[in-house]
From TrEMBL:
Binds 1 FMN per subunit. This is Coenzyme A biosynthesis bifunctional protein CoaBC. Its EC number is 4.1.1.36, 6.3.2.5. Keywords: Decarboxylase, Flavoprotein, FMN, Ligase, Lyase, Magnesium, Metal-binding, Multifunctional enzyme. Gene3D superfamilies: CoaB-like (3.40.50.10300), Flavin prenyltransferase-like (3.40.50.1950). Signal peptide: none annotated. Residues 13-184 form the Flavoprotein domain. One of its GO terms (molecular function) is FMN binding. Residues 1-197 are annotated as: Phosphopantothenoylcysteine decarboxylase. In the N-terminal section; belongs to the HFCD (homo-oligomeric flavin containing Cys decarboxylase) superfamily. Pathway: Cofactor biosynthesis; coenzyme A biosynthesis; CoA from (R)-pantothenate: step 3/5; Cofactor biosynthesis; coenzyme A biosynthesis; CoA from (R)-pantothenate: step 2/5. Residues 198-410 are annotated as: Phosphopantothenate--cysteine ligase. The gene is coaBC.
Length: 410
């Protein structure tokens, strides 16, 4: 068991990755994936040479962030992005690093994004060179590497093997796993939820009345999606079971789309047992049509619909939950928030209810901000109001710092 992190102190580590113009640049794509999987956030800057081998779009898709190429881009450099990026980094990696990059780095030249970041950052530096073996052994290159080592730069030494140019020798970019191991040696343990499975449900369910009409609710899914992303950023393997929402699939999260409460129940039960934590954020429709009209019903002066209660998925989970699993429910309340949430806590046998006041304009359903109450049997803590992404991070940090719930996850 690792030590319990301090509430509020859990933020994913920020890595800056500079990619320069080597045939091995494509391996940096895999590096971004592996680092994200381990719970790191990654911002990428490419040299002009790198653009000959890989595209900014590939890195943007994998990192989920804008990729930096042009130091003189008026759209972003108005806020002097390269300085902001350099300040935010916990580690700056350059992989693959060419002989040209190493020479510029050794002498403090800054004529592109990766070299400028190098001068502008105070973060530790990790360089993984890749080049032809003769170029690697060239005394000028060796001198540059030694200069950088003398300044405290860590190197992930290139490997021996067949080179893309057909020669054999030292110069192949180190394996991605080796680079990741070197990163973790410098930055310490990655996200506290690495190796843990977290299931989040989000959005509304919709319950058809006939082939075109349905009943549903106003849930936008934003809070659940923010929680899924925040858990992923802490290193968890996240499954998101989502009703119909207008939100993009979060990076690195497995999403299962469902429509009705019964479909959501089936998906949740299939995954529930293997999860370390389940957060049931979805606004499940409490009722479905007792009889589903097979086609569109014609208009008539009155229409009475008979509704049947849907099974309560959270209560089912509460009954069968493994002892170590953390089970979290949400409660949407418009009055007596804490008292009603405490009733749900007991009735559904969950560890925690996160209650929102849905009567507050600008908060909760559909809104970008939310305020919640973390409701336990004998204690209530209020978090927010905050934007939902920040609130999601705070909720998870609170759970991890909780004296009973945190140790079950760490
Ligand atoms: N929930 C569920 N299955 C249902 C209804 C609700 O799993 N059929 C879960 C929700 O995902 C949420 C919690 O139960 O985590 C509370 O949902 P909420 O709608 O606030 O409460 P209800 O139990 O439906 O009670 P009420 O509508 O009477 O307040």
């Amino acid at each position: 068991m690792t030590s319990i992190p301090k509430f509020d102190s859990i933020k994913p580590k920020e890595i800056l990755l500079g990619v320069t113009g080597s045939i091995a640049a494509y391996k940096a794509l895999d590096l971004v994936r592996r680092l994200k999987e381990r719970g790191f956030e990654v911002s990428v800057a490419l040299s002009r040479g790198a653009l000959e081998f890989v595209t900014p779009l590939s890195f943007a898709a994998l990192s989920g962030r804008e990729v930096k190429v042009n130091l003189f881009d008026p759209a972003t450099e108005g806020q002097i992005d390269h300085i902001a990026l350099a300040r935010r980094a916990d580690l700056y990696i350059v992989a693959p690093a060419t002989a040209n990059f190493l020479a510029k780095a050794a002498y403090g030249l800054a004529d592109d994004y990766p070299t400028t970041l190098l001068l502008a950052t105070e973060a530790p530096l990790l360089i993984a060179p890749a080049m032809n073996p003769v170029m690697y052994q060239n005394p000028a290159n060796i001198e540059n590497i030694n200069r950088l080592k003398a300044r405290g730069v860590t190197f992930v030494e290139p490997g021996v093997g067949d080179m893309a140019c057909g020669e054999v020798g030292v110069g192949r970019l180190a394996e991605v796993a080796e680079i990741v191991a070197a990163v973790e040696k410098i930055l310490g343990a990655p996200g506290p939820l690495v190796g843990k499975r977290v299931l989040v449900t989000a959005g509304p369910t919709i319950e058809p009345l006939d082939s075109v009409r349905f009943i549903s609710n106003h849930s936008s899914g934003k809070m659940g999606y923010a929680l899924a992303e925040a858990a992923r950023a802490l290193g968890a393997k996240v499954t998101l079971i989502s009703g119909p929402v207008a939100l993009a699939q979060p990076q690195g999260v497995e999403r299962i789309g469902v429509e009705t409460a019964l479909q959501m129940r089936e998906a949740v039960l299939a995954y529930a047992h293997s999860q370390d934590m389940i957060i049931k954020c979805a606004a499940v429709s409490d009722y479905r049509a007792t009889v589903l009209a097979p086609r569109k019903l014609k208009k008539q002066a009155e229409w009475s619909v008979s509704l049947t209660a849907n099974p309560d998925i959270l209560a089912e989970l509460g009954k069968t939950k493994p002892a170590k699993q953390v089970l979290v429910g949400f409660a949407a309340e418009s009055e007596n928030i804490v008292a009603f949430a405490q009733e749900k806590l007991v009735k559904k046998q969950v560890d925690l209810i996160i209650a929102n006041d849905i009567s507050q304009p600008g908060l909760g359903f559909k809104a970008d901000q939310n305020q919640v109450w973390m409701v336990e049997k004998d204690q209530v803590t209020s978090l927010g109001p905050l934007p939902k992404d920040k609130l999601a991070q705070k909720i998870l940090a609170w759970i991890l710092a909780h004296p009973l719930l945190g140790p079950r996850l760490l």
